[in-house]
Amino acid sequence: MAKLILASASPRRREILALLGLPFEVRPGCGEEKIQKEEPGEIVKELSAGKAAEALVSAEEGDLVIGADTVVALDGEILGKPGDEEEAYLMLKQIQGRSHQVYTGVTVIKKGSDEPHTFAESTVVHVLPMSDGEIWEYIRTGEPMDKAGAYGIQGRFAAYVEGIEGDYQNVVGLPLAKLYGHLKRYREELQ
Q1: Catalytic residue among 63, 69, 132, 167
Q2: Terminal-residue alpha carbon distance, the chain
Q3: CA angle at 26 for the pair 139 and 190, rounded to the nearest 5°
Q4: What is d(CA 187, CA 72) in angstroms, rounded to the nearest whole number?
């Protein structure tokens, strides 16, 4: 039986993928992320393909590998994970009261196949205005420190999300419905 392998250390991606009810293993890559593209949607596709390729090396024939990467973009500029609280403040100050995009790239590849399937999903997030006090209160929760764009929509930041256009799970880290569409052809092999 083929194994499903998630090439990501993200606990949020593990939780989302588990919703499919398929058994899977987690094998995060440890390689350096190399970016050659410039557009956020292309960057996440490139990064997801790199993660999938790295995990594919240790996979067995017939195994299915999923690589994923998520970025937050404001006016086309990528906001990564903050290095410290001050950087988190600057990111949150930029996105408060505005809309931005969250892009997740996903690559699905079967060991022994030359055909990786790579796609990107984009979701628009509308953030309510936040005072400096609210921003610092949120930073003190510790939530922003390991998240792209310095926030987690599934956590305390949800109070500041006015709405979204697109897939909520994409903002959390994995566009489940679109991924499931790609996995359906392999379902019998994975059970």
Answers
A1: 69
A2: 7
A3: 135
A4: 31
pTM of this prediction exceeds 0.85 = yes
Look up tokens 């490139």; give the residue.
46
C-beta separation of 15 from 27 below 8 A: no
104 vs 54: CA distance, rounded Å = 18
Give pLDDT tens digits for 83-106.
Answer: 999 999 999 999 999 999 999 999
Structure tokens at 29: 């890559």
CA 43, distance to chain mean position in Å, is 12
Q: Give the span between the Cα atoms of 179 and 181, in whole angstroms.
A: 5
Is 146 a catalytic site residue? no
pLDDT bin (cut points 50, 70, 90) of residue 168 is: very high
